[in-house]
Amino acid sequence: MFNLFLAVSPEIFIINATFILLIHGVVFSTSKKYDYPPLVSNVGWLGLLSVLITLLLLAAGAPLLTIAHFFWNNFFRRDNFTYFCQILLLLSTAGTISMCFDFFEQERFDAFEFIVLIPLSTRSMLFMISAYDSIAMYLAIELQSLCFYVIAASKRKSEFSTEAGSKYLILGAFSSGILLFGCSMIYGSTGATHFDQLAKILTGYEITGARSSGIFMGILFIAVGFLFKITAVPFHMWAPDIYEGSPTPVTAFLSIAPKISISANISRVSIYGSYGATLQQIFFFCSIASMILGALAAMAQTKVKRLLAYSSIGHVGYIRTGLSCGTIEGIQSLLIGIFIYALMTIDAFAIVLALRQTRVKYIADLGALAKTNPILAITFSITMFSYAGIPPLAGFCSKFYLFFAALGCGAYFLAPVGVVTSVIGRFYYIRLAKRMFFDTPRTWILYEPMDRDKSLLLAMTSSFITSFFPYPSPLFSVTHQMALSLYL
Amino acid sequence: MDPIKYFTFSMIISISGIRGILLNRRNIPIMSMPIESMLLAVNSNFLVFSVSLDDMMGQSFALLVPTVAAAESAIGLAIFVITFRVRGTIAVEFLNSIQG
Predict the structure, then answer these.
(1) Contact (CB, 8 A) for A451 and A102
(2) Carries keyword Transmembrane (chain B) (predicted)?
C-alpha cells in the first residue's frame, strides 16, 4: 500500500502541478487588482519546471522498480522499458514546451490553458506507457487524444487551426471507436482484458490450427486503431492537414509525444500480449506503404510544415519495421529509432519556429539562408541529412540498425524497399539544403535571431546528432535492457 | 446463440456509425452523433459479453466508456462551434482550406 503511492509519485506530482497551475492561472488572470495579466509565459515556465521535476522524481525513483512492480490492481506495470520510455517522453515534452515561449510572445497568444493541457496529456502518456490492461490503455489513449484535440484548435480566430482541430477530432474519435471495438471483441472471445491473461490465452494461437475469428478480428481492429493514431499509411487520411493547420508548437507535440507513447503501448500489446506473430503481416504492409508514401508524397510539397509532416510519416514507417519483426533486435531498433527520431524532430521544429518570425511558410522562402544566417543553415542541413540517413549522422545509425534487424528476422522484401525509398527520399532533403545554400530568392527575407531557449535546444540536439556515431554504445545498451524487460 | 444475437445488433449499430462518419458531407455538428453511436454500440457489446461470460470486468469497462464519450462529445461540440464561428457555414465539404 505504501509502495503504491511511492511508485506512482511522478504522476501524482504532475497531476497536482496541473491543477495548481490551472487554479493559479484562473485566479490571477481574472483578478482586477493585477489588471488582468496574460499569464501564458508565467504558467509556461512553471509548467516546464513541473515537467522537469516530474522527470527528476521518475529518474530518482529507479530503486522503486524493484519493489513496486505493479500497482492499481495490476493495471499498470513498471519496469526498465517504461522507465526509459517515460524519461524520453518527459525530456521531449520539456524540449517542446521550451520552444513555445517565443511563439506565445510573437503571436500574442494569451491563453494559459494551452500550457495547462500539456502536462495533462503528458500524465496520460505516462500512464499509457506503463498500461498493462485494455481498460487502462484505452482510457490513457483517450485522455491524451482529448487534450490534443483542444490544443490543435487553440488559435480560435484562425481558419486553419479550427479546421485542423475538427479534422483531428473526427479522426481521433473514429480511431478510438475502432480500438475500443477491438478491445470488446477480444474481451468477448477470451474474457481477458489484462495483457498477462491475454499472453497466456494467445500462447498457441499461431501454431495450432484452430483460430477463433473473434480473437483475430479483435486483434486486427486494435491494430487498425493504433495505426490510425500513429498515422500509418493506409490510415493517414488527414494527418498532413492536421500537422499543417495546427499552430507550430502543437505540430511539434503531435509529431513527437504520441508517437513515443503509442509505439511503447503498441509494442506491449503486440509483443507481450500476442507474441508478435499475429499482426506481423499488417505491420509489414503498413511499414512498406508508409516508407513509399513518405518518400514519394513529400517530393511534391512546397510548404515546410507539410514536408515535415510527410517526412515524419515516412520516418515512423521506418521505425515500424523494427516493430514488425518480433525479435528483441527489432524492438531495440524501434527504441533507438524513436529516440533519434524524437531528437531530430525537436531539432527540425525548433528551426521552423525560429524561422517563423519572418513568416517562412513555403520552401522557396528559405532561399539564401546560408548568406544571412549561416549557422542556422548548417544546423538545418545537419538535421535534414540526418533524416535522410547520410552516414556520419545519427539518422543513418538508426536506419542501419532497423534494416539490420529486419534482415535478421527474415524480412527480405522489406529491407531493400526501405533502402530504395530512403534513397528516393534523400532527394527532397537535399533539395532543402540546395535551396538554402545555392538559391537566390526573388525577395530577400531578413532573418531575426532566435531566442535563448531554442538556441540551447538546437545546440544540444544537433550536437547529439553529430556526435552519436563514434560512441553509440550507451544508447545501444540502454535500449537492449529496455527490449529485454519488454520480453520478460 | 444468445450473445451472438445481441452482438450482431450492436455490430450493425457500430457499422452504421462508421458509415455516418465517412459519408457525412453536409453538417459538421451531426458528425458527433455517429461517433457517439459507435461508442454506444461498443459499450453494449461489453455489457453483452460481460453477462454471457459472467465476468465483472466488462461491466466496469462499460461504466468508464460513456464517461470518455461524454467528455469527447463536449470537446467536439466546442470545436465545432468555433469552426462555425470562424467559417460561417456548417457544411463539411467546405472544410478544405488546407490544400494538398
Answers:
(1) yes
(2) yes
Contact criterion met (CB < 8 Å) for B98 and A163: yes
Q: Which of B28, B68, B87 sits opposite A139 (nearest CB)?
A: B68
Whether B45 maps to a domain, the answer reads yes
Q: Which amino acid is at A248?
A: T
How many separate domains does chain B show?
A: 1
Q: Which of A179-183, A354-358, A420-424 has the lowest mean pLDDT?
A: A354-358
User: Alpha-carbon distance A474 to A243, whole Å?
Assistant: 33
Output the CA torsion A396→A400→A402→A408 (10° steps): 180
Q: In angstroms, what separates the C-alpha of B91 from chain A's closest C-alpha?
A: 12
Whether residue B95 is contained in a domain is answered as: no
Q: A294: left (phi > 0), else alpha (psi -120 to 50), else beta?
A: alpha
> Looking at the domain assignment, is residue B93 inside a domain?
no
At A120-165, the pLDDT tens digits run 999 999 999 988 889 999 999 999 999 999 999 988 888 888 888 9
- A chain contacts of residue B100, beta-carbon cutoff 8 Å: 240-241, 244, 301, 303, 306
Contact A452, A301 (CB under 8 A): no
Residue contact B98–A301, C-beta within 8 A: no
- Please indicate whether, in this complex, the C-beta atoms of B79 and A163 are within 8 angstroms of each other: no
Residue B43 forms part of a structural domain: yes
CATH number of the domain bearing residue B53: 1.10.287.3510
Closest partner residue to B75 (CB to CB) among A139, A150, A159 is A150
ipTM: 0.94
| Spatial contact of A323 and A344, defined as CB atoms under 8 Å apart | no
Grid coordinates in use for A148? 490534443
Check if the beta carbon of residue A345 is closer than 8 Å to that of residue A462: no
Beta pairing, strands A70-71 & A76-77? antiparallel
Answer for the pair A165, A152: CB distance below 8 angstroms, yes or no: yes
Structural domain boundaries enclosing B36? 1-85
